[in-house]
Amino acid sequence: MATAQPDALLIPPGAPVPTRVGTGLRPGFTRRLVTTPIVLALSLLALYLWVQSRDLDIVEDRTLTQGQVLKALAQHLQLVGLSSLAVLAIAVPLGILVTRKSFRHASPVTIAIASVGQTIPSFGVIVLFALTLGFGSRYVIYALILSTVLPVLSNTIAGLQQIEPALKEAASGVGMTPLQVLTRIELPLAVPVLLAGLRTSIVLNVGTATVAAFTGAGGLGSLIVTGLVQNRDVITVVGGALTAILALALDHLTRMTQELLTPRGL
Amino acid sequence: MTETLIRLEQLSKTYPGHSVPAVESLDLSIPDGEIVMFIGPSGCGKTTTMKMINRLIEPSSGRIVIAGEDVTSIDPNELRRRVGYVIQQVGLFPHVRVSGNVGAVLRLLKWPSDKIARRVDEMLDLVGLDPSQYRDSYPKQLSGGQQQRVGVARALAADPPVMLMDEPFGSVDPITREHLQDEFLRLQQEIRKTIVFVTHDITEALRMGDRIAILGERSRVEQYDTPPNVVARPSSDFVANFIGTNAGLRALTLMPIDRQTLVPPPAEREGPRLVYDEDRPVGWHLSDGQATTRIQPLRLSAQPVLADALNQIVSSQAPSAVVVDDDGQLLGCVDMSAVRAAVAGAAGNGDRSDLQMEAASGDGSA
Fold first, then answer.
1. Nearest to B323 by CA among B340, B302, B294
2. H or E element: which one contains B280?
3. Is the Cβ of B178 closer than 8 Å to some Cβ of chain A?
4. What is the pLDDT of residues A145-187, one digit of tens each?
5. Which of residues 139-198 of A touch B (CB under 8 A)?
6. Which of A120, A157, B257, B304 has minimal CB crowding within 10 Å?
């Protein structure tokens, strides 16, 4: 069957010729990609020059060595990285699970439980975990997971639920198995919303992880705490500024990932 | 009549938590290569019935037999790859190019990619979209009508014998809809699929259907017949109401003129008389002292319908319409009494035996 049908009637004259958007990167991607890093690098430079211009006393000098600062940064990144990975590993499958037909009634309950994690002040959770479970970065990471799982979970659920039922039905209708519908249709379409949740979660995480210093888990929070306890403003400012820059940098990174992973055609 | 391709046997569906079935003990035979329209009031179960055929909705009881094979218990995904499916919302995958959408079923069937590419182009051609222009587009870049064409191409790609269409032209504007309907009928001449077509638009049903199933509550078949028979012989008040008040006029567009309809031209002594040119009727001499009113006689081979006859009568002001053969020789006339009888029959109060219809007698009318 299906010989070509030379029928000019079918395309009305003057029908818009589709522009070929959607191929390659979105316009302005490169500009957006480099702007934030440049601004952040300039901020770092300013911070460095500012510290250099100060007369540092012995405490400040000893705390603000390159090794100390980098170590705090690395610890911080580790706390944030591990807990965010764990959040992804927990929240995405859970979000997928509770949006399946047979579990649909479970999604409000899940959201409610996750909300509790975010509602309890994260400072409290971290201290509580330290007191009951023990000190160390491991328990801080548990606490961070609990405090930052909600945005990813709720956005995974929202991202999957926003997909038109008719679209999923069409996918089933062409003969896709439920797993194929999930991996070929639902997840790609949920990615933008899901990653928006991850961004929120990571930014939240960077801030919350400063509290880890109180339980001896290190991180940039330890600079802030040292500065406050020893009454050395320079150290506090360096800790705070680095935390902010880290948050902005990670936010930028996830935003660009989000843009890259967002399917064309949306 | 043609062979049955799809047979629904005692098909029932009761949704969980409902005491009343949505579809109850439905028996229906759908002939090979025909378009069967399911029409009925909202909530009558017509869509449920259609979705049971590809088991997007699993029947509570009963059997579905397609081409002799009981498909009620086979793998539903396998079944759906063999049944084309077009829906009102089109349901194109927004993140997939037109080519990927059209080739969706083929990839599931694990065709080699070069074969898929060729098939996709062929399908786009078939539905009137230039492959080189549209295959790499995303659905968002197409108009509503173009999207629905892609939807049809996707459903046809694997060459399934059966297509299910759920109000496929419901969401486009009326002009585009008519255009798509015409195109689709032309396409169907070529592809001869067995199509179950759900609509709520009686005009669409009469226009597109080889057969119409008018469904009442719980998908009870109120009447299952050809469009002319449904219009001319509604089996119940329910059907008559459903067809609506201007059924008479609809009937005229559905009823073909054939030789039995024809009567001789009026006697020539007085009143209007036919004017011939070399034995071929060309116009009417309506009354003394008036010039000849020229007409375009209807050619019987062009399969005119009563509406064409009425049109000629009204525009020429003559008492009847003139029908000729391919040579232009007079075959006979259609006068107002035939038109009147058709309208009256459709309205349900005429003497139906007057009607001359070529419509095949329907089976299974309730």
1. B302
2. strand B280-285
3. no
4. 988 998 999 999 999 999 999 999 999 999 999 999 999 999 9
5. 164, 166-167, 169-177, 180, 184-185, 188-189
6. A120
Provide the 3-class DSSP secondary structure of residue B123: helix
pLDDT at res. B269: 64
Euclidean distance between CA atoms B228 and B222, whole angstroms:
16
Q: What is the pLDDT of residues A20-42, one digit of tens each?
A: 444 467 778 888 889 999 999 99
- Beta pairing, strands B162-166 & B194-199: parallel
The separation between the first and the last C-alpha atoms of chain B, rounded to the nearest angstrom, is 18
Q: Is the whole-model pTM more than 0.90?
A: no
Query: In whole angstroms, how far apart are CA A210 and each of A86, B55, B268, B289, B336?
Result: 18, 55, 109, 108, 93
Find the CB nearest A265 among B122, B138, B149.
Answer: B138
DSSP letter at A42?
H
**Cα(B240)–Cα(B234) distance, rounded to whole angstroms?**
5
Fold of A67-261: MetI-like fold (1.10.3720)
Rounded CA separation A235/A50 (Å): 12
User: If you count DSSP H runs as helices and E runs as strands, how many of each does chain A have, helices first?
Assistant: 11, 0
- pLDDT (0 to 100) of residue B290: 75
Q: Which 51-80 residues of chain A touch chain B by CB within 8 A?
A: none
Residue B178 tokens, joined: 């008519």
Q: What is the ipTM of this complex?
A: 0.77
Instruction: Delimit the domains of chain A by residue range.
Output: 67-261
